[in-house]
Each structure stands twice: as C-alpha cells, then as structure tokens.
Fold each of these.
Amino acid sequence: MTIQTSEMPDYAIEAIGLAKTYAASGKMPEKRALKNIDLKVPRGSIFGLLGPNGAGKSTFINILAGLVTKTAGKVRIWGMDIDEMPRASRAAIGVVNQEITMDPFFTPLEALELQAGFYGVPRRERRSLEILRAVGLDDKQDAYVRQLSGGMKRRLMVAKALVHTPPVLILDEPTAGVDVELRRSLWDYVRELHARGTTIILTTHYLEEAEELCDEIAIVNHGEIIACEPTPQLLRRLDRKTLTIFPREALSAVPPELAGLDAALRPDGALAIHFRTGETGIGRLLEQVRAAGVGIDDLATEEPDLEDVFVALTSHPA
Ligand code: ADP
Ligand code: MG
C-alpha cells in the first residue's frame, strides 16, 4: 500500500479526547490508563512522549498500532481516522513495540521479506538488504534471530517497522536492553531517517533521552498530558539545578549571608543550594558561599530528573 504524499497533513498524529479504560479482570481492578488525551504531533518532528512507568505511553502507542482498542475519542494517523480507514491509516506508521517479539527461527532477511509480504509490498519494491545495511545488520542477514544480541534484535525490529517505508516511525522505549554503543548508532539512524523526512515518535522514561533527541516533548503522567511544548521551552521551565557543597568544617545552620538563596543543610552535613540556571550560575553561587565564610571540601551539581520535572510542572503552572 502506498501513501499519498501529495496530501501532506499538518499533523502526523492527532488524538482528540482519547481515553482507554482496561476492564477489571480477576483481582485487577478497572484501570483508566488514558484520560481524555488531546495530542498533536507535527509532521516532520521528532516527538517525545515522556513519562514514568505505568503512565500510559504504551497504551497510547498500542492504540495507534491497532493492538489496543480505545474506549473513547478520535485518532487520526497521517490525516486518516483509524475507525474509518483502519488499514490505510496503519500503513502510514511503522511501530517498534516495547517488548521484543520475533520468531526465533527466521533469519533477519527472511523476517524482513515476510513483513514486506504482510504489508503487500511488491517484490521489486522491497528494500530488505538496504534496510539491514542501514541498521548495521547486513553481516547478520542469514543468522538465526535467536543468535542475535538484545541490541541487534531491537535493530531488527526497527528494520521490520520500515519495510513499507512509512512516513511515521514510532518507537516505544527503544533503548530498553540496548547497550550504549548500539544506542548511539540507533539514534544516528533515527536522526538520518528524520533528516530524510520521516516523522519520529518515541516514548521514554529518561528525561535526558527525550531532551537530546526530541524537538517537542509531551509529558504524560497517570494517563494525562501535563505538558506539551517545544523542548527548549520546556527545559527553560525546568532549569532548576542543585549545587551541593560539602563544607570543610561542619555547619550548624545555613549561614545568614545565604538566607536569600534556596539553601538547606542536609542531615549528612552538606549544604544543598537549589538555583535556576537562567538566574544565576555556579561561579556566582560559589563566591557567595565563600563570602559567607564556608570552606569548600567538595562539591557536586545535580540536574533535574523526571521526579523533579513533575514537581516543577505541577507546582508552577505555566
Ligand atoms: P507505560 O507504557 O507508560 O509504562 P502502560 O500504557 O503500559 O504504561 O500502562 C498504563 C497503565 O495501564 C498501567 O497501570 C498498566 O498496569 C495498565 N495496563 C496496561 N496494559 C494493560 C492491560 N492489558 N490490562 C490491564 N491493565 C493494563
Ligand atoms: Mg510502556
């Protein structure tokens, strides 16, 4: 199935009032995994869906992929309503699921050819070898899948998602089980696809990962979108860092000279100073600390993690 690229939608994905409630089963109570989600993924973006485990990220992706049926709301993929045009809309996405699922008895080349057949890609239009080369698996084309490492399997899943040349590639927690080196090459390839026009959506629970790759980030928590902004804008709102100072001599309290700062004495004797990078820098803070007569034995800085992000976003609404 070919995608009509002459009709370019503004949004690769649009969800309106999307909700999913998993029915109770056995001892498990009913679960509202998605609550009235509105989300627009601009065509051509690398879009991050960031949230902790259990937030509802995979549920969202699985609704797009047709693996989970939504309870309410509308979804358009590449401008096509998934209820009205289930097949055509799904042909516009390639989805790499969170769990590694593949038949261990096929070789990577066979797996790609089967997948291409599944999507009805005519033989002369297949690009299996080219795709294997792109994900760095060409030397494994005839190995059995069960002989591949976790990272290689993950890359084969990416390859499988690309056989029908979808304009939108969706990766659900793609770095799970991938070592640092493979992660680099995977990201390089994702960036290359993006540069050639593919819209990329990825889910992650790592702020750093979303920050590094995505030009827009939606933060999802307990089935709700609590922020959705271009990455620089979001980071500006989260520009809190912590400077931790281990004093040479024990302090009994925060020195009065530092009363104007957001400083606290921790139980381990360290002085923790929270600050906004947009307002002050570590150099200025250290001068203030020295001026207050505090000798510095050691120091450390901490970036915000996902927990801090939630605190920042929910306590300082935009
Ligand atoms: P995430 O991908 O962000 O970790 P999920 O979408 O997998 O989150 O899960 C969201 C919530 O829905 C969790 O509380 C999870 O336990 C629940 N859930 C996911 N899949 C099912 C299912 N098939 N049946 C019942 N509950 C589910
Ligand atoms: Mg998940």
Amino acid sequence: MNAALPRPGLREVAPYEAPQLDVPARLNTNECPYPLPEAFREQLGAAISALSLNRYPEREAETLRARLAELQDHALDGTWVANGSNEVLVQILQAYAGAGRRVAVFEPTYALHSRLTWVTQSEVVTQRLDEPWTIGTGDVDAAFASRPDVVFVCSPNNPTGNTQPTGAIVEIASRGSALVVVDEAYVEFGGDSAVALLTRFPNLVVVRTFSKAFAMAGARIGYCLTSPEVVEDLRRVRLPYHLSALSQTAGLVALDHRGEAEQILAAIRKQRDRILETLPPMGAEVFPSHANFVLFRPARPAADVWRALLDRGVLIRDFSAIVPGCLRVTAGTPEEVDRFLSALEEVLT
Ligand code: PMP
C-alpha cells in the first residue's frame, strides 16, 4: 500500500471537470463553435513542419510577445504569454500570492480564481456580490478589510456575463497595496476593457486568452498586459521553455488571421442576442451579457432542465450551486442555437 500522503486537504478537493460529451450541441464551455479557416490550417501546417523541434523553443517567446505588444500598442517588456490564461493566472499567484498571503475574489465568478489560489497555498477571501453583480465602493472596502495581496476581477464576468465599470477597477487599483488582476477572457465579445488604465497603474494586470474569440482553445495560449516589473516577476516563477514551439507558432499564425476571427465575433454576438431575446417569452429570466454566453433562470428546477436538454442532444452548464436556479449556455452556431431554443421550448412549455 502507498503510505505517502499528499498535502492536507488535497483529497477533499475534486479535480476541475466539465463534461466533454459527444452531443450535437456542445454549449457548456464557452468555446468558439467555428473551426479555423482552411488558409489558417495550411499556414499552420507549413509553419509547424518548418520548426526545429529538436531544439528548445524561444524561452521568452519574444516573437509572439512582440506581435501581441505591437497589436495592443503596449510595451514588449510588459507583455507576457503562457499556456492558456489559466497558466498566466497561476504564474501571477505563484509570484504574488503563496503561503501566508491573501487573494480577494468577488463571487460569483470564474471558479479557477479561487481554485488556483488554493493550489498556490494562498488564502481566498470572498466578497459576495448581489445581482446585478456590479462591484461598488462598499464591496471594495469589504474586500480590502482583509488586506489582500492580490485582487481578482473578471470582466465580462463568467458565469454572469456582466462587465464591471471602469470606475470599479480604478477604485481597486488606486488602493495600491494589491496586485489587481482583471480577467478579460471574454472582452472581445463586449464590455469595457481595463487596458487604458495600464499606464496609470503599475499594479494592474489585464489577462486575455486565445481560447474564446480566437477560436484556439485547443492550442492553449493566453497572455497578459501589465508593467515590466510584473513581467520580470513572472519570469522568476515560469518553467524554463514553458510555452512550446508548437503553441508559439500557432499563436503567431492566429494573429495573422485575426481578421477572420473578428468576423466570427459578430456572428456569435448575434446568436447571444437571439438567446437573450427568445428566452423571456418562454418564462426564463435572462441576465444581460457582454460575453459569448448567457446566464438564465428557467421557471423549472435547473437540474431538471439541464437533464432534459441533454436528453435532446444539448449540453449546457448547470450553475445552480453558484447562482440559485441558473444555467449557462454558450452562444454557438445558428444551428446549435436553433436546437437549444427548440429543446428549451419543449422542456419549459
Ligand atoms: N478566465 C475565464 C473567465 C474563463 O472563463 C476561462 C475559460 N473558461 C479562462 C480564464 C481560461 O481560459 P484559457 O486557460 O483557455 O485561456
């Protein structure tokens, strides 16, 4: 028998999981429903076959960072990339949190913020927001009462879809004593960005991803824009050669095709808005969304609705444990949304 024990509490924590089922409409993980265009695939194939995979990749991923920096009109030494925005988040926590330090989150929000805080042995301090989940001065005061070292804000927020006012980010960043991480995984779909505040606040980090608007969830590329000091600190904790040559190449090719990605955004927003309009007459409450998903509260118990939709080939996400009575659906292709809407109509009426 294995007598070795993991860290205390580890076995009480379940692995992060979202079902990956082969159903006609997979609308549970906020991915882009469209595959990348043929020209992208051809360019990517050629670029990958030209790589010298016997060599380590560019350790600082400077070519990809420089392209991103140029596109975002931000300094290269304040731009950082990693394996998905999740790895950017974990590197931030490794550098700025850790044992004996505190991380504030405004709930309900993306579960990984508190999970990664736990992974990095730091203490989570939770400030619960009420509908419509806008951060106000009282919430900021309450969060800072515990003297956090890092504060997370997610905007547009997952799973609620609302964006936080720039004034709230200014208020949090102005306190100065904490690193403020604004997770903008969905910002290309709508809402305000905190990027313009970067020149004012060296303690601000804006985290972005290629997984949603760039249709590259499978490539695992995320980045952040911040001050050079923060990037220097991230370099101290990153694994050597953390971002593979394959990922760096995929990121560069994706940036060449960002025009196509932008066209897809309009199609996804259209489906999101269609969901927002169609659900209320079915008796479901919807919450305004600036992202590529919609949180809604059906008149029937959420778990029953989730199951009944799955029986009809539509996989969405049950958030009722986090926001009472609520489900979240990703805006997919028009066909997927058709299927979702007709299944929901059948279930609710
Ligand atoms: N932030 C938020 C708010 C998310 O919803 C997600 C993905 N669901 C991520 C970050 C992580 O994205 P990735 O690691 O694929 O970049």
Amino acid sequence: MKTKLVIFGITGDLAQRKLLPALAHIIEEGRFEELNIIGVSRHQVNQGQVLGDYYDKLNHLTSVYQMDLGNPEDYHCLRDYINQQEDEQTLFYLSVPPDSTSQIVENLGLAGLNGPSDKLLLEKPFGRDLASAHQMIDNTAAFFNEEQVYRIDHYLAKEMAQNIVTFRASNAIFAHLWSNQYIERIEVLALEAIGVEGRAAFYEQTGALRDIAQGHLLQLLALTLLPIPDDLHWDNLPALRLKALRALEIADPSRSVRAQYEGYRDEVGNHESMVETFVSMELKSNDPRWERVPMALTTGKALDRKKTEVRVHFRRMNEAQSNYLVFHIQPNEGIAIDLLTKKPGYDQEVEHQKLSYMYSSDTRLPDAYEQVLDDAINSRKSLFATSEEVIRAWEILAPIQDAWNGDMPLEFYPVGGSARPIIQSGIKA
Ligand code: BG6
C-alpha cells in the first residue's frame, strides 16, 4: 500500500540515530517503493541538514514541513499538504518529548487526521506513572481506536527478543523444562556503558525505571514467562504477554535498589537530582507455573559494559551443580548454555563450558527500528505494546515509585563500575 510517513521530531535525537538509518536501509532493500516521508519541524530547516548522512538515500522521497505544533489550524494545512488518496495510508510517528504527545494527538484528531487509513506510532515513555498513563491512553482513545495505535517498545522488535519465543516454542527439550519445577531463578539485564549522552532534560524527567524497566525489561521478562499454546500465532502475542504481566505480583520496594552514577549531577546541572541511572528489583509471579521463582530485573547506565541478556538458572540437585541458559539479546546475539564438564587432565576436576551459537559476522540482523517500521506499515501489531500491557506495567511498579517519593535511599556508583555490587548493596539475599 502506498504510505506517507509523517515524522514529528525529525530533527530530534531518535530520528537521527535510529529512524533515518532504519528508513535508509529498508528503502535500499526495496521493501517500500511507494513510501513518502514528511518530516515535521517547528523551525525552518533545510532538507540537507535534516537528512544528514542519509541525504543521498532518502532525499528523493522526503519533504520537510514546517508548522507550529501548538496551533490547531496548522494541522488543517498539514492535512491539505498530505492530501491522502484513497489507496494510501498515513502513519504519524511521534518522536517528541512525552509532554507534547497528547497535544499533537488531539490536534491530529481535531483536524480529521485520524481516519481509518491513519495510524499513530507512539514512542515511550507512555506516561510517568499509573495515573498519567491512564490519562494519556484515554486522551489517545478519544481520537484513535486501539487498532490504529502502535506503541513502540523497540526491545520487543529486537531479533533475539523475538527469538526467545521462537526458541521456546520450537525446542521440546526446553519446553519440558520451562517451569518452576526445573527453573530456579531468572535474571533480565540491560546494562549500558554510555551515560545520559546529552539527553539531560529528557533523563531528568525519566530515570532508569521509566526509561528501561517499565517497558523493555518487563517485556523481556514477559516473553520469557508467557504461556506458549500449541497453536501459537504471533497475532496473539500481546495477549500472551499480558497474561504473563498480569500474573506478576506488584513490586515490593524492599526488594529494589536505585542508584546514580558519580558525576551525573554535574552532567545534568542539578546538584540535588535524585534521578536513578540504575535500578534493580526482584519480582515474583503468582502463576502456579512460576511460583517460588525469583525474577531479577536490572538496568543501568555508565556501567562497565553494554550487555542485554535474559539468564535462566536451572535448579540443582546438589550444591556442586549449576546450569543456565542465556539469551544474548545484544551484543554478540545468540544463545548459550552453561554446562559443567570434566576439565581435561589427570585430576577429576570440573570446569564450566558453553554450548552456544552466535550469528556469524556476515549475518545481518535487522535493526529493531527497521522491524518496527516494516511492521507498522504492514499493519502487524504483535511487537507493539497494547494499552493494557502499559497499564499493567505501571501497576507493577507503582509501589516502587511511591517508595522513591518517600525516603528510600539512593546509592552511588562509580562510572564504569559493575552491576553486581550495586544490586547486592541494596537487595540482601
Ligand atoms: C532507549 C532509552 O529506549 O533505549 C535509552 O531511552 C537507551 O536511554 C536505549 O540508551 C538503549 O537501546 P539499545 O537498542 O541501544 O539497547
């Protein structure tokens, strides 16, 4: 179908880092010949500046439209500019600060830019807490029905996140083991070596809990826990994830830790900032299949490495044993099983060995944003978060947010430090 992709925030950080490269790639692959991009900007900018390194690949199908986002009249002009034809769809991609989203959604709706061939792509965070998420979802629902709304959680679109489901559904040996009978605990980690990287204003309003834990970490956990029916259809994935999220118990703040990297306050120019750049928490599920299995979710910036993984630890029959399975979401995408084997030599010693596969260096894995755009254009919704998932995730985290508004301590850690000691400093075994 012919598609017009209208990007609000084309000059922003996300568009430049993720969207334009992803678009350049899918265009290069020839997946969408009939695609036009309209970049919306508040300021007069020239196309060369906007497209930067992607000018050669995207210039022929892009135009830049300048408007005042706060002026409802300008949306009528935008509507004339888009001039949607019967055989066309329009995707409105809101890559804007969270506090601008509702206003743009409302103005699009009031200008009639919410017809059956219009779709809305929203970037997180979807609210700041449970109450604001309800409000944001209700505001959106006043103008767009749920089918038209694509809430992006790009971690769901990562190749290895999708592979958690494929791997679980396709390998009987693990399907048999996938319950509290054989699994002792689960860890989900999203560690970053970078700090806040010039996004001080955004980060000061967000913090690690809202930025990564509320969406990315809970969704990776949901993919690990969700029930896999015999006739798995990807269209049912959001409902299955929701089932897993609903079974998770509301967080216990005493099983969480928040921390900030040293130097953060100087970097953002706020010497009293209590914003966490690191969070770790332990959750439990009341699904009988997962009772007694602690699940630790951890994320942080300015750590010693970039690493996102889901680690599933199997129960031991004696203290000497230990086995785990790791989904390496990034980098070095792949799956590994840690086994104990005999160490070669005369003494009967034991050593850890890995059974693993990693994609070879010449396998190109699509970037998550390529998948997101491709799916939205083709109306595939399985890798987008529904409003119910968003609400449930906030419900789970609400007690932690409440405790942080009170006097729960903030720890500090050195830039380049490792995650383990920070987790241990706050959550005692
Ligand atoms: C984004 C967060 O959602 O994910 C960023 O807003 C974070 O703070 C980024 O750096 C990490 O994404 P990725 O794909 O590089 O792991």
Amino acid sequence: MAPYTLMGILNVTPDSFSDGGRFLEPRDALEQAALLAGEGAGILDVGGESTRPGAEPVRADEELRRTVPVLEAVAQAGLGVGLSIDTTKAVVAQAAIEAGAGLVNDVSALRADPEMASVVASSGVECCLMHMLGEPRTMQLEPRYEGDVVDEVKAFLDERLRFAVAAGITEERIILDPGIGFGKTLAHNLALLDRLDELCSLGRPIMVGTSRKRFLGVLGARAHGLSEPLEAGRRLPGTLATSVLALERGASIFRVHEVAPVAEALAVATATLGGDGG
Ligand code: HH2
C-alpha cells in the first residue's frame, strides 16, 4: 500500500483557474470522476466555489446546486473512492455529507462559518484545515508575514487544530494543509515546501496542493527563459517536482488535477526512497 493518498480535483465551477467550466454538467463531472478514480485517486474533492486569487464569493444556493447532484451521482456510481467537499459553508458541508462526502475540505479552517465546526463534529466526517492569509478576493495583493512564514503557518495550524478539537472534532479526523498559493508569494510557497517537515511535528497528516498553481508557471517560465508565466496547462512538470519534494518532506495527501502522472512520480519517488520498492 502506498503511504500516501491522491486527491483528485473536481471543480464544478465556471471560473476555476485551470479547469473552470469543464465539468459543470453532471454527466461531464461523472466522466471526470471515473477517469480520476481509474488513475488512482483515493479521494475526489468536489468544489462549487473557486478560491483562485480575485474570485468573487458564490451564494450557498448556487454552490449547493452545483455540487450536490455531482456528489450524489459519483456516490451512486460506486467508483470506490472517498468523497470530499471543498467548501467554507456549513449548509453546503451538511448537504454534501448527506450526499456521501466523508471529508470536509475547508480552506478557511473553520473560520468562515460559525456553524461549520459543529456540522463536522456531529457528523463524524474528516476535515482538512488549511492556512490562508486574508481571503481569496484580495489574498495575493502583497501578502506579508510579520516574521518567518513557516513558523506563522505552523502556529496558525496548531491553533486551528486545538480549536477544532475543542469544538468536538476528534484529532484523528483532522488533516492540515499549509495552503500553497493562498496569500503567499513565490518565496513563501517555496519556504513552506522546503520546510514542510516542520509541519509534520503537529502530529497530523499533511496535505499539499501545488497542482498547476501560478508560482509553478513563474518558475517554469524562468526555466525556459520566458518572461510570462507558463499557462496552467503547462504546469505539470512543476506539479510533479513539488509533489515529489513534498512527499520526501512528509506530506501524505496530494490534491491534484492530473492523477496518473502524479501517481507515477510518487511511486517512483517512494521506491527510490526505499519505502515501497517491491
Ligand atoms: N487549493 C485550491 C482549492 N482548494 N484546498 C486545499 N486543502 N488545499 C489547496 O491547496 C487548495 C484547496 C485551489 O485550486 P483549484 O481548486 O484548482 O482552483 P479554484 O480554487 O480556482 O477552483
């Protein structure tokens, strides 16, 4: 058994930064779900609100309309994958849980909706608490940390972990995520990846989501001597490089758009590190 899980991204949004509009029809979403599951995803993360920099908030009724039919269809299809809902709204989380989600991926780490902690606590599902500086609309406008970014993110995750446990969510059900790209410069993202092992001492599984993110476009462009960041569809090499490094630094859940190439890269890395060489 691989010592990690691949989380395939299924955005049911018109405006996600790399796959917006592609899976709005439940039929297309189900097809993508089957593809990602077949490629080795252990979890599918269904999202109905983009959190890309500059994104406008979506109303709960619209988010429910987008996500619930997809969750129901995927649950009924029996693809053998876990389901996650990427939301900051308690009402969406509740409906998603009823539709079959076993994980609530809350990029606000239970801060956006005062009801979220009790929905997660009472339902017994898992949850992912992610670090974000500011909010999506403005988070990439000159993000700044008082001191060391890794220390600050670690202290934040520690505080949110304690908050969640105090709210009745058992520690075993909590995953932590440094929130790559959420209120972070290129240097912040790189420091967090390079020192990801420091977050492991919080004692919970670490999830990372570098997939197709803008900083990979910037670094990729540099590698080719280009001035404009590579477009999202050309960021797979960067996604692979950062996923492998994150694995080596202790990450165990990888949130990605393209499951098959990441699965292959992580299998090779794991064998190389002596963990699963067969
Ligand atoms: N990144 C995105 C969304 N949700 N959740 C966690 N836990 N960690 C992440 O890094 C993360 C996340 C952004 O990526 P994507 O879903 O592809 O884009 P969009 O927010 O535009 O839908």
